[in-house]
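Narrative progress, year one. The postdoctoral researcher (J.K.) led the effort to move from monomer predictions toward full complexes, under supervision of the PI. The following entry was the first complex the group processed end to end, covering 627 residues in total.
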Amino acid sequence: MSQLRYALYTGCTAKESTPELLSSTLAAAKKLDIELTILEEASCCGASHLQDFDPFLSHVLNARNICYAEKLGLTMVTLCNTCQINLAMTKEKLDHDADYRAKVNEKLAEVGLEYQGSVEIKHFLYALIDDFGLENIKSKVKVPLSNFNIAPFYGCHNIRPSELHHKSNGGENPYNPTSLDRLIDALEGHPVNYSSKNKCCGFHVDLQAPHTSNALTGTALLDAIDNNADVVVTPCPLCHLNMDIKQRGAGKQAGRDISIPVLHMPQMVALALGCTYEEIGLKYHVSNAKKVFAQATK
Amino acid sequence: MSNTKKITIKAFRFNAETDYLPYYKNYEMEVGKDELVLDLLNRIKWEHDGSFSYRRSCRHGICGACGIKVNGKPVLSCKQNAMELIELFGDELTFEPQSKKRAIKDMIIDKGDFWEKHATIKPFVEGNIDEHPVHETKMSKDEVENILDADYCIQCGNCHYACPALEVNEQYFGPAAFVAAYRFTVDPRDNAGKERLEMTSQIGPGVWDCVKCFECAEACPKDINPIEKITKLHNLQFEQNVAQRNVATKHAEGFVRSIKKHGFLDEADIVKYSEGNIGVLKHLGDAIAMMKAGKIHITDQIPFVDNMPKSKNLDEIKKLIKISQTNKL
């Protein structure tokens, strides 16, 4: 297999509150000999909120982000479900509405850029599964995750709306997604089947509707716990923020203690590939995740 | 290859008049490749148990009566092929009502909350319309296109009962009511647009409580994409100066403020900006826990100390915001 090369759109959280996401992604990619070029020019995707305020501005800024991957001629990979959906929705709009694309390109021309629609955008999860391949990952496993029942939490924006993700982003059925389950299987962990795995974590209303957010996060975590999960894993750092940081608040609202380590998808891969404790970045978790490293290597 | 498949249907059974708790009952049957979920509902009733209850009427995907959930997936029974579901979920299908907590009898639910919310947003044209017109009211092509596909809603309730925000917040209008609110607000004959925008801008019942899960887009049997209309309602609030300055609107607008400064979002600043200096205090517990874990730093919010990463070519971003920003709060 020739070396896989991608333009990496890190998103904001990987550069700020979840540094463990970036370090574990880079470490896992290195182990798999995948070349990631960080798009240092990129700006925030708007996190599904900017377009509520100003849709045109959101499209212009995301078109600019895509331009930099086009300059490299590389498929763009994302580390966050919400970055993925915002960039992919911008691409969908510009690729199918020539008049609108001309309006956006008129603005981009002012800074010497032009959106061409020449590259694909996919989440790192699907680069690993569909491009690198599960069999190839399986052959590189150094630390089988056989000590863990792992609950996959898919995150809305990688699986819905389904048509958006059909072409290059996994093409999962949102009512029965399988990618994370198959990945856990390839890393020799035990995937947990539970009904909340394809549900919403509530992150996007954290500020204005904390009751809703806590209820959704709490329900999902308790569902995982009640189905004997030792660890939850998610490809989305926003789900991760809610599920890692809000365990106390969500548990208080639900009237039950919630304590379970929540890993980013690349952390789980890095752990199984034998990356170091520092690279996996388990110290950056609010939930009790440090123990996972010792348990894995036991 | 055989054109039929033997399956087990696990059906939710409940009679609010006699049962304390719901239960599930299994029905085994051979399913043909052309059978619809409605055919299977009929066969449970006609071949197994005459007391099994469900709503059905037109059988043509237009009356909106026969919505149920199969293995959690909202379907319109008369439109959904059963074999497709067997391919997706395997040979055990679970039939449940759209909302278990609103069940009256088996698949039949009390849809009162749906109709009440739908009626509240005025799902009709309100205006001074001549009772004896001499010609039809003309609409331009753009005006018609602006309604999008919002007119195709059949009020089946699939999106409403798929919405997780509504599941935990009973005052929330829900996606179907928002589709109707959008449809009539952009109708050029209508005068109640501002009233609807005000109603749907309130925190609690309004669009700001949408969790952005896209369950509604997936659930709609008419492919209407309700969340697209929810976004349009957000946009109309700013365009028509209905948006109030509150935590939610400041949060949406705050992205511009951050991106202009850093390219990236300043995660700590946007919470402080949206909540205000007093409101932000309720996040103190989480902030301390995040600080302990090294996720945020004590120096993050000290003036003149700038820990923020910056996008390369930030000048381009600043210029694009200056020339492309269309809305203001």
